[in-house]
Design a protein that fits this description.
By secondary structure, the chain is of the alpha/beta class. It folds into 2 domains: 121 residues, Rossmann fold; 94 residues, Orthogonal Bundle (Arc Repressor Mutant, subunit A), CATH 1.10.10.10. 40% of the residues lie in helices and 20% in strands. It has 8 helices and 11 strands. The longest helix has 16 residues. The chain is globular and about 55 Å long.
């Protein structure tokens, strides 16, 4: 397998040095940037496989850079792990809302970081192949990795795509948050259950065309299911 390239974006050189050593020991190729502008240039020119992005950067913040990357069709599916000293829950949710795949709070051990990075890469590397899945105008095509509603392209992040693919291949069954974390995020999970709720909201928003968000149903006290049968309104 080709060596993966990780872009480390942090304005503190000692942290970049520590991360570079840890990642190179884990056999990753490493790029470094000290601010958002330099990082964006490297992303466009060098196309890294994942970005370790510090929340607090001089000038444009890490969270703003993440928003910009997720708005751009070329970089929308680039995996992002946010690095920050902010441990409050609302900051974590904000990081996930803009499209980050994971969130790690400083201080952290290099070993933990590498494990979480591997988990994110493993998830984004799992591209399915097979026949398109269609339900009432909604179509997911695994071979092209595209989703359409009544032939209109639907934009969504890689995590929402995997979540939708899982739901479409496991319709009508209720899954708890923990089960969804295991099946969609992978067995080596380092994210919180609330992460599932964030991505469910984003998936519903992506499927809102012609009311197709109704397929993603909340089962109070149990979890979530995908169903094209009539249900009570979502929470």
């Amino acid at each position: 397998m080709a060596e993966k390239t990780i872009l480390v974006v942090d304005d503190e050189a000692p942290i970049r040095d520590m991360l570079r050593v840890a990642l190179e020991m884990a056999e990753y190729s490493v790029l470094e940037a000290g601010d958002a502008q330099e990082a964006h240039g490297l992303i466009v020119d060098r196309k890294p496989d994942l970005v370790l992005l510090d929340w607090m950067l001089p000038g444009t913040s890490g969270i703003e850079l993440a928003r910009r990357l997720k708005r751009d069709e070329v970089t929308r599916e680039l995996p992002i792990i946010m690095l920050t000293a902010k441990g409050e829950e609302d900051n974590k949710v904000q990081g996930l809302e803009v499209g980050a795949d994971d969130y790690i709070t400083k201080p952290f051990s290099p070993r933990e970081l590498v494990a979480r990075l591997k988990a994110v890469l493993r998830r984004t590397d799992t591209l399915s192949t097979g026949e398109p899945i269609r339900v009432d105008g909604l179509c997911l095509d695994p071979s092209s990795h595209r989703v359409t509603i009544n032939d209109v392209p639907v934009q969504m992040g890689p995590t929402e795509y995997r979540l939708l693919e899982f739901f479409l291949t496991h319709q009508e069954r209720v899954y708890t948050r923990n089960q969804l974390l295991d099946h969609v995020w992978g067995g080596n999970v380092y994210v919180e259950e609330r992460t599932v709720d964030v991505h469910i909201r984003r998936l519903r928003k992506a499927l809102s065309l012609d009311g197709h968000d109704r397929f993603i149903q909340t089962v109070r006290g149990a979890g979530y299911r995908f169903s094209n049968k009539v249900s009570v309104p979502n929470n």
